[in-house]
Amino acid sequence: MIPFVDLKAQYAALKAEIDAAIAGVLDHGRFILGPEVAEMEEALAAYAGARHCVAVASGTDALLISLMALDIGPGDEVIVPAFTFAATAEVVILAGATPVLADVQPDTCNLDPAGLEAMVNERTRAIIPVSLFGQPADMEEIGAVASRHGLAVIEDAAQSFGAVYRNRRSCALSTIGCTSFFPSKPLGCYGDGGALFTDDEALATACREIRVHGQSGRYHHTRIGVAGRMDTLQCAILLAKLKGFDWEIGRRIEIGERYNRLLDARGIDRVAQRGDRTSVFAQYTVFVEDRDAVRASLEGAGIPTAVHYPVPLDGQPAYRERCIAGPLPHSRRAADRVLSLPMHPYLDTASQDRIVAALEQAIA
Ligand SMILES: *Cc1c(COP(=O)(O)O)cnc(C)c1O
Fold this sequence. Notes:
The chain is globular and about 65 Å long. The strands form 4 sheets. An 8-stranded mixed sheet has the order 1-9-8-5-4-2-3-13, sandwiched between helices. Strands 6-7 form a two-stranded antiparallel sheet. Strands 10-11 form a two-stranded antiparallel ribbon. The chain has 2 domains: 7-102 and 110-242, 3-Layer(aba) Sandwich (Aspartate Aminotransferase, domain 2); 245-363, Alpha-Beta Complex (Aspartate Aminotransferase, domain 1). It is built from 12 helices and 14 strands. The protein is α/β, with parallel strands linked by helices. Strand 10 (215-217) and strand 11 form a beta hairpin. Helix 3 crosses helix 6 and helix 9 (291-300) crosses helix 12. The chain binds pyridoxal-5'-phosphate. Pyridoxal-5'-phosphate (PLP) is lined by residues 58-60, 84-85, 87-88, 130, 156, 158-159, 180, 182, 192, 194.
């Protein structure tokens, strides 16, 4: 079986650094907000090109804390794509606001800026574009709509940390950028973790306070917050992994582009990438018609696949009644056809050739 992602190969490549980082934290014992947390925040802010980075417990917490810092709540609407992981809209509901589902572009599966302006009304407070599969959404076009109406933009960059959009990095493209360090994301730790990025000092301070129960000083609670810290151990692991990150991103792009060439030569439909940005290929995703049969055929050939995501949010039981949604034809069509193939920095050429040959045979 070819691994879908290969965290073991990654650990083997960076074992000495990661083991030393873990041992260092066990030695000093400052497990909550220890020195590695600030160190990691500084390194990631510099990497992303944002003034502030706040490490939090997960990508979902990064989104939720961002909404809380922007004081978004009951009576407010937030525009999110219908075709995404549930967390993007979940946090809007948790904050007490209402998600308004927008459709995606049929080729990139990212939020379509056309039609966005028509969804804005006096209740709209923010837009959360998702940089899906590792490729930044149309952040400038979305930002232009937002600034015309005084809205915040929160990039859900859970899959796109490290990607470049018009010479700037994902996470530094909007009011706040949120990412996830879930183990299988492009930059993953060994548990849950996440971070948010902003250039706005007041927002960064608010997020830092919300992360620790809304405290501006010890036992001085100026806001309602959450237990949203990222463990020191996870930050130390991430700092060690950051050393190999540029190489890994390079490999992801190389492998993603090779998939593109091989599939294009065979006329197999896939998620498109724009020329003015890079994708870090958190997922490598194709479009197929008879997905269950294709999956079964690949499984039989020892090739695991995944579906990101099988149902748009307006079709999910918990979301149907809690979201505002019009017709979402491209989200539905994407959900019916997407299929993600094995993708990780350690995928070799022979395995990739096997995957493409098996896919070609499965859809023939
Ligand atoms: C992974 C993911 C999240 C949530 O991140 P967690 O760290 O698992 O909480 C949110 N949005 C998208 C698009 C994701 O892929």
